Amino acid sequence: MAGYPHCYRTVRSQTKTTNSVYGEFFEAAQALKIKIQPELLKILQYVDSNRNKFYNDLKDAVKIKSITTELKYLEEVKKMHDFVENWLLKLELKYECFNIGYYEVEGKRLKIPTIILAFLKTSPDKKTICVYLHLDVPKPDEKKWDSDPWTLTNIDKKIYGCGTSCGKGPMMSWFHAIEAFKKCNLEFPVNLRFVIESMHHEHSLGFAEFIEARMQDLFTGIDCVVACDGEWLGEKQPCIIYGAAGILHYEMRIEKKEGTKTDIKEDMETIFNTIVDAEGNVLIKYFNDYVIPVSPDEELMYESIKDFDLEDIRDSLPPYKRSWDKVKLLMSFWRMPSIYVDEIQECICDKKDTSIVKRHFLLKIVPKQIVSTVDSQLRKHLQNTLKDLSIENKVTLKLINSVRPWLEDFRTPHFKAANDAVIQIYKEKANMIREDSGRESVTIFNTFLEKPILVLPLCNKSANPGEDNENISFRDYYEGTKLIAAFLYQYSDMKVKNQN
């Protein structure tokens, strides 16, 4: 018995072994156990009993070709709106549709598809969650798909189709969660306000102006904003997103002037050698001055991230990054500024105009870096470079698109509610992650509403959201609906706990 000190444990005593090993194991095990409320259990059982119906509902949504960038799909976009309105009526949600301006498609001036604002109000004493959804999908290149993108298809326990993981899949998960509450005759734990747009893949055109104009009347009383976008870091570990990089997308053009001796492609290379070095460091003066220093606590947080296999991507990394560890590499993706430079593009037209070359590049910025300031720094750097290097050919710089960086404090109640919900459904703590690409809709909410924002992805890293062979696994589709319901209960409970 001497080899098992825990056998002698009494109420008033603990051995060293028991406390340091068994106690820690018990504590860790308990941390992944959060009681399923009786009401939530009914929801989970309803989801499991209605999988075929949920699948067919998504099938009906996916077959609608809701592409907003071509005239021939305009009726399909209208059909998608009708589909959503029918669901809102079936769920007994009140809703309004709002015109938000005009845009140009194939030379024609058209109304931007209306924004739908839907309400589920149960009590003024309950918290109110604003849910962001979108209906549009990018036009798929059907030659690159292994199945028909408009027909829901099962392949290896995955559901393939346009919008399954980005847009339509998350939307149906929210609708199914509400349906589950109604069918189980359960009181809804929060108030909901849906904001549904159709220009997500077109930089959320008109969305910012709408939010700014109506924030005082349509968006008062909101406690937090939730978007079920994005994807997990790996295949198994659920994630919660608390930040995203800002992006400045540029096009630089160089046009040959008559009488100049230098080659325009050489000029392009020379200019970029002054912007970024061989190890990816941005050389623009003052560019890095406002980057927040890394704290020891932040390093520990990055070390705790699971389900990220560096070996999966090591060979695809630039040579100077291949020796980096997980922490340094993830920080380079998410919380350090960087630059991505595309290849030089020459004219491929029939006349083969060699007098102009262009190059696209992305500047990734992080919190405390401001879009307008960074743009000014780059233009001043370019102006000085052209002067110092005596470049005579005509150089123009165009900012195509920009997105502000976004960052939340993930120690706040809505993140704790989401993490507790993840533990309830997946028996795992969530990875707290950031994204290395811009998230326009989120930054719009962040700018005008100034409310906490939670991005809760429902699919794993192989889902290809918005890309070729987009899919969501059967597990993630159904468990995602359960996760939404669990989050609603966890978030509503925090109000009661806070009052005590």
UniProtKB/TrEMBL annotation:
Database matches in InterPro entries: Cyt/Met_Dipeptidase, Peptidase_M20
Highest taxon above the source species: Eukaryota
Keyword terms of this UniProt record: Hydrolase, Metal-binding, Protease
Keyword check for Metal-binding: yes
GO molecular function: metal ion binding; peptidase activity
Any one GO BP annotation for this protein: proteolysis
Pfam families cross-referenced by the UniProt entry: Peptidase_M20
Keyword Cell division on entry: no
Name of the protein described by the UniProt record: Cytosolic non-specific dipeptidase-like
The species this protein was found in: Exocentrus adspersus
